[in-house]
Amino acid sequence: MAEIPTAAISRLVTYLRILEQLESQDVSRTSSSDLAERAGVSAFQVRKDLAYFGRFGTRGMGYTVPILKRELVRVLGLNQTWNVVIVGMGRLGQAIANYPGASDYQFQYAGLFDVSPGIVGQQIRNLTVQHMDDLKGFVMQNKVDMGFLAVPPDRAQDAAQALVDAGVRGILNFAPVVIQPPSEGGVNAQEISDEWRAVIIENVDFLAGMKRLAFYILNPHLKDAPMTEDPE
Q1: Which of 26, 151, 160, 184 has a CA that sits 20 to 30 A from residue 41's CA?
Q2: DSSP secondary-structure letter at 120?
Q3: pLDDT tens-digit profile of 122-180?
């Protein structure tokens, strides 16, 4: 399989959301032009993104909505259950835990963790918040695919390390800080440890999004036009 740009995966998620909307409206067929218009990209970009994973449409007839939706669910790995732990059960962590759409995509909350005595022991979504000291043992006894970080910025690195030490290989970081994989051999070393090399980190920074939004409101003429191809 050719190297796939990260932006293409993000667009697949957008296409899937559009297909779900079309299906809810009893629309059975769509086209690359229609998907492109709804996604804010070019038809060429839609076809290119889908071509990384196979051929899903018929020339001149477009795509069958349920079939393309099913294929994107498969490509994105949303046809299997993903077990998730949340680290940090303050207001943000609780909001994430209570978000209603996660289970629709096979994301199942398996464990909740914190260090605050006032939070540990609480019941949230039928799960008891456990202390971080119990994280490694929990992961050893339960299949855990992902960890969500909803901790203060100054605790994010240590919390990420705790997840990695426990064997979690996917981290969705909501803290407004970049998680840095530690290097072996000291601060000047360039080699990342094997355990961190296998870790995938996605950062969700609400404040960064607000800053970009403010900039483009002030400078609407600088907003990217629909691309015909991914930049090098």
Answers
A1: 26
A2: T
A3: 999 899 999 999 999 999 999 999 999 999 999 999 999 999 999 999 999 999 999 98
Q: Which residues of the chain have pLDDT under 70?
A: 1-2, 184-190, 224-232
Task: For tokens 């998907």, name the residue.
Answer: 35
What's at 17, amino acid-wise?
R
Start-to-end CA distance of the chain, whole Å, equals 18
CA distances from 114 to 59, 98, 123, 128, 175 (A): 53, 16, 12, 11, 14
Which residue type, as a one-letter code, is found at position 131? H
- Contacts of range 213-218, beta carbons closer than 8 Å, 24 or more positions apart: none
- Phi, psi values for residue 2, rounded to 5°: -65, 155
